[in-house]
Amino acid sequence: MTHSIPAEHAQHDLDLIAGHAAGDLTDAQRIRADALLESCTTCADLRRDLVAIASATRTLPATRAPRDFQLSPAQAARLRRGGWIKSLLRPFAAPGSAARPVAMAFTLSLALFEICWSCPTALPSRSANPAAGFAAAVPACSANPVP
Fold first, then answer.
1. How many CA atoms lie within 13 A of 13 on its CB side?
2. Cβ(32)–Cβ(14) under 8 Å?
3. 8 Å CB contact between 109 and 103
4. Phi, psi (5° rounding) for residue 3?
5. Which ranges of 41-129 does DSSP label H, i.e. alpha helix?
6. What does pTM read for this prediction?
7. Per-domain residue ranges for the chain?
8. pLDDT by position in tens, the chain (length 147)
9. What is the C-alpha separation between 129 and 19, in angstroms, rounded?
10. CA–CA separation, 89 vs 53, rounded Å?
C-alpha cells in the first residue's frame, strides 16, 4: 500500500511532531507543533502513530533476551588491542603516515608482479621492433591462460 505525501508536508519539522508526541517540548515549540497538527492531517497521523507505538512498547514484557550480546570490558579490551598483524599494519593505516605511499607502491608492485607471473608471454620481446613483439604476445596470452 502506498501513500501519497502532500508536498507541503515534506517541509514540516517531523522532529517537532515527535517531540510533541513524547511530551518534551518547550511552550514555544508546543505552540508551533499544535499549529502544524491542526493544519496537516499527515502530521496528525504521524503523532497518533508515534503515541500508539510508545504505548504498545510500554506493555511489552520486561524480560531479557535469552542471550546477552553485550561485550564484557575484558572482551572489549582484547578486541581493541588486536593481534600482532594489526600492530604490524597499524603504521600503514594512519591518515598522515609517511608509510602510506610506501604501502601503496608495494601493493601496486605486487599487482604488477602477479600480472606478469600469470601471463609471462605478455611481456614484450627484445627484438628490433618491441611493439610488434608485444602485439604478437597479447593474443598468445589470452589463448593460453596459466591456471
1. 11
2. no
3. no
4. -115, 140
5. 41-58, 73-81, 84-93, 99-118
6. 0.40
7. 9-58, 113-147
8. 455 566 666 778 889 999 999 998 999 999 999 998 998 888 999 999 999 999 998 888 877 767 878 889 998 888 777 777 777 777 777 777 787 788 888 889 999 888 887 776 655 555 555 555 555 555 555 555 555
9. 77
10. 47
> Is there a contact between 81 and 52 (Cβ–Cβ < 8 Å)?
no
Q: C-alpha cell of 131?
A: 611493439
DSSP letter at 128 equals S
Cell of 74: 575484558
Pick left, alpha or beta for residue 111 (phi over 0 → left; psi -120 to 50 → alpha; otherwise beta): alpha
Cell of 109: 608492485
Q: Return the amino acid letter for 129.
A: N
- The set of cell numbers assigned to 34 is 499544535
* pLDDT number for residue 78: 80
One-letter identity of residue 43: C
